[in-house]
Structure formats: C-alpha cells, structure tokens
Amino acid sequence: MLKKLKSLFVVEDETNKEGQAKANPAAPKAQAKSAPTAPKIKVDTTPIPKGEGKPDEKFINRLLEALEEANLEGFDYLEYKQSLQSIDDMNMDEATMFKSSLAMAKTMGGTPEKLISSAQHYIGVLQKEEKKFQDALTNQQQKVVAGRQESIAKMEASIDSKQKRIEELKAEITKEQEALAQTKKAADNDASKIHLTKTGFYAAYHIVVDQINADLEKMKKHF
Fold first, then answer.
1. Could you tell me which of 85, 71, 79, 70 has the C-alpha nearest to residue 13?
2. CA–CA distance, 182 with 162 (Å, rounded to integer)
3. CA-based diameter of the chain, in Å?
4. What predicted TM-score, i.e. pTM, was given to this entire model?
5. Which helix or strand (DSSP H or E) is residue 173 part of?
6. DSSP state of 74
7. Model pLDDT, residue 25
8. CB 159 within 8 A of CB 32
9. pLDDT tens string 57-112
10. Measuring CA to CA, which residue among 145, 123, 132, 129 is closest to residue 213?
C-alpha cells in the first residue's frame, strides 16, 4: 500500500527535483566575559518554505504511512486519486478527467462531498504529523543545542578565571581554549544537522500536502 501511495503522489520523481537543503549559518563566536550569563535557548519550529531543502525518504514514508493508517473505509479521496492516475495518459483535458473519475467513483459509492471531506481528512492527518514533528524537533533542540551552549558557557567561565592566574597556568588555558573551539564547532554542526532534518521533513510535507490541496481545488472546481 505504501508503494502505491508513493506512485499516486509521484514522490520519488519530486524528490529528485528538489535542491540540496541549506544549513543554518554558523552561530557567532562568544567573547570571553567576566560574568557569563546562562545560555538562552530559542527553539525555532517555523515551517520551512516550500521549495527549500531536499525531501527525506524516511519522512516521505512516514507521511504516507500516516495516510495509510488513517485510510477511510469505502471509496474516498485516495481511491479517487488512484482512478485519476489510471486515466492520466488518455489525453483528456483536466475537467473531463476529473468528471470521468467522479463518474467512476459514483458507481462505487463515492460522492463529491465524500471525496472532498476525505481529502480534507487526510490534510488533517498530515497536519497532525507536522505537530508531532515540531514537538520532537523542540525536544531535540532543547536537549542538543542547550547542552552544547551550557558546556560553552562553563568553559568560557573557566577560561576567564584561569587567564587571571600566573604564567604556569597558560598551558592549561591553551588546552581549554582548544576544547572550547571543538565544542563550538560541534554545536554548529549539531544545529546544521537539525536544520537539515527540518528542511527534509518540510520538503516531503509540501510534496504530499500540495498535491492533495491541488486536487481539492480541482474537485471543488469541477464537481
């Protein structure tokens, strides 16, 4: 069923057309302070605009699995989508194609109202998946980014204290400065990976949602 859903939404072709995701720019390096303050964590769950990023296969699969799990009984939007695809190569104009598929749907108990409401149902399913993703993303950002920033703040405080000591502590300060640089680099890498994961989800999300929304508009137009 998952493979069939992929074919309905032409996910595999769209995936190859998307551009590479853009990583977040590196965070500015913090300056040494005499009294470091606690790190402030800003969790960004703003949806990625359509067209940015490369769809992640695992997110495409999860979104389509969610549709499969929420598949309504009887002839609904998903079956209608399949019938549209089956006549797509018959060189019909759009209105004729949608009306012909509707005629076929009616023989199986489908109605314009049921097709539209079921398409809206699947949009709701995908929006719930988006909410789950945002919650997971928030937890990941708080856990990973906050942990790194806390480490950076502690190291900066230690360096600031040791810089006031006598000459024999310079070697220890240098060692911790190197560790600080590595930790900042790791923090930047973590933030970039999180952003890449986010762009992958939204690229996949837009592919599926846009096709359903497009079909909704066409159904409303032609029914």
1. 85
2. 19
3. 89
4. 0.57
5. helix 170-222
6. S
7. 37
8. yes
9. 899 999 999 998 999 888 999 999 988 888 877 888 999 999 999 998 898 888 99
10. 123
With a pLDDT cut of 70, the percent of the chain lying above it is 83
Own/partner pairs, 177-182, CB within 8 angstroms, 24+ separation: 179/155, 180/152, 180/155, 180/156
Q: Both ends of the chain: CA-CA distance in Å?
A: 27
Ramachandran area for residue 91 (φ above 0: left; ψ -120 to 50: alpha; else beta): left
Amino acid at 31: Q
Can you read off the two tokens belonging to residue 109? 């108990």
- Sign of the alpha-carbon torsion through 203, 120, 89, 3: positive
How far apart (Å, rounded) are the C-alpha atoms in residues 106 and 200? 38
Q: Angle at which helices 94-106 and 77-86 pack, to 10 degrees?
A: 130
Q: Give the lowest-confidence range in 76-80, 126-130, 139-143.
A: 139-143
CA count, 13 A, side-chain hemisphere, 28: 3
Residue carrying structure tokens 């502690």: 154
